[in-house]
């Protein structure tokens, strides 16, 4: 078993992002790991019957908004986590997350689930589920909808090096 030195934290920049990042940073701090927070900007399918100029403008607005939100997330990272970086990825979420993890020596992925149920999960699928099945490294799925939110991450002194 090898040490966890690099943790990837995919975020959707929605309501639970802050909670997920805080949780992941606590784990990274205990492990002495670097954290990369990543957001995937999903590709918008271009159709030839739309005006390409308005399509490009729409896509530019989506990217600019993602950059703004990512900067805000990174600004919230405590100064005690200097190895916390962020990146925007472009494409299909699960594909981008798995590829980034593989190509950047990621040792663990910590991501949230949306808690989709029923027809929503059948129609949309689950990014977390697809990443979990395809990732080369351990993947921890954080459920922001369940249980007590005051998680405490500690190391057992008897098990530490």
Automatic annotation (TrEMBL):
GO terms for cellular component: cytoplasm. It is found in: Cytoplasm. It comes from the Bacteria. It holds the Pfam family Usp. Keywords: Cytoplasm. Residues 5-142 form the UspA domain. Belongs to the universal stress protein A family. This is Universal stress protein. It comes from Desulfobulbus propionicus (strain ATCC 33891 / DSM 2032 / VKM B-1956 / 1pr3). The lineage of its organism: Bacteria, Pseudomonadati, Thermodesulfobacteriota, Desulfobulbia, Desulfobulbales.
């Amino acid at each position: 078993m090898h040490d966890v030195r690099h943790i990837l934290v995919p975020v959707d920049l929605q309501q639970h992002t802050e909670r997920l990042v805080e949780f992941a940073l606590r784990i990274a701090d205990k492990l002495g790991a670097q954290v990369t927070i990543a957001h995937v900007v999903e590709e918008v399918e271009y159709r030839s019957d739309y005006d390409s100029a308005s399509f490009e403008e729409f896509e530019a607005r989506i990217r600019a908004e993602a950059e703004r939100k990512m900067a805000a997330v990174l600004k919230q990272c405590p100064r005690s986590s200097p190895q916390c970086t962020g990146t925007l990825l472009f494409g299909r979420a699960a594909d981008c997350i798995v590829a980034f993890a593989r190509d950047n020596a990621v040792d663990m992925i910590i991501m949230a689930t949306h808690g989709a149920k029923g027809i929503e999960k059948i129609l949309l699928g689950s990014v977390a589920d697809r990443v979990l099945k395809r990732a080369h490294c351990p993947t921890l799925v954080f459920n922001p909808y369940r249980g007590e939110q005051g998680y405490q991450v500690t190391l057992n002194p008897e098990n530490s090096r």
